[in-house]
Amino acid sequence: MSAKIYGPNGTELEIGALNKAASVELYHSNGSPVYPVAPVGKYGMRIEIIPTNLTINNVQWTIFNPVGNATIVGLDRIQLQSGFIGTTAASISYFRFEKFSAATTFTGGIVSPAAKFKITYPVSNIICNQLPAGLTPPTPAPVFEQYFHEHAVRNSTSLSDTVGIEIAGGGAEDELLYLEPGTGLAITADSALVLGAVLVGSVYWHEYAI
Q1: Beta-carbon neighbour count of residue 175 at 10 Å?
Q2: Largest alpha-carbon pair distance within the chain?
């Protein structure tokens, strides 16, 4: 890791005449900056999954950082509540959380704007999309990475669970799940689902200027 020191007007190694201060940017050995620098804002979005498409591998919900966007997303936390509103079955519905890369995001669903945690934050360009019947994948097809979390919904009206997926343990920047421009996170059916499985909650993130 290397450090670059610069003054208020961008000149390297210059110390401010009044505040006697300089700033430091940290870089990985490959030249890419170490995130997070000061975030441009904090945002949130709801997750509401009540599938009508019950087949395995259908994508129910996505968050996507568009190609060419000027910010990188650092996902902090996903808070979920699972339940069941159908006919009780002796089985479990599974959902997997997986990162993907694509030229464009999934389509066909309900696109919702991100909620700003402070009114002065800029509007987020991040796209959140969800559809009970399953979203339509883009062309060319997205490339999925190995999923990092699987969530189980017990198919019983007498059972429910609340879980928080703490992505950034202790707020350490190296533990954030980053969505660079052209990447996203999908919640996908990892089994044949039972009608009535419910997964609702929220996702929270910071955005950093690239």
Answers
A1: 13
A2: 72
Which single residue is written with the structure tokens 């999954």?
A: 49
- CA separation, residue 106 to residues 17, 130, 191 (Å): 51, 9, 20
Q: Is 173 helix (H, G, I), strand (E, B) or coil?
A: helix
Instruction: Classify each residue of 104-116 as buried b or exposed e, where b means 16 or more C-beta atoms within 10 Å of its C-beta.
Output: ebbeebeeeebee
Beta strands 110-112 and 23-27: pairing type? unpaired
pLDDT in tens, 36-61: 467 899 999 999 999 999 999 999 99
Q: Omega before 36 cis (within 30°)?
A: yes
Q: Where are the alpha helices (DSSP H) in 51-183?
A: none
pLDDT 10s digits, 173-189? 556 789 999 999 999 99
Q: For the ranges 17-31, 32-46, 154-168, which has the lowest average pLDDT? A: 17-31
- What's the CA gap between 115 and 78, in Å, rounded? 15
Helix (H, G, I), strand (E, B) or coil at 169: helix
| CA separation for the pair 118, 137 (Å, rounded) | 33
The separation between CA 58 and the C-alpha centre of its own chain, rounded to angstroms, equals 18
Domains of the chain, by residue range, sit at: 1-34, 35-209
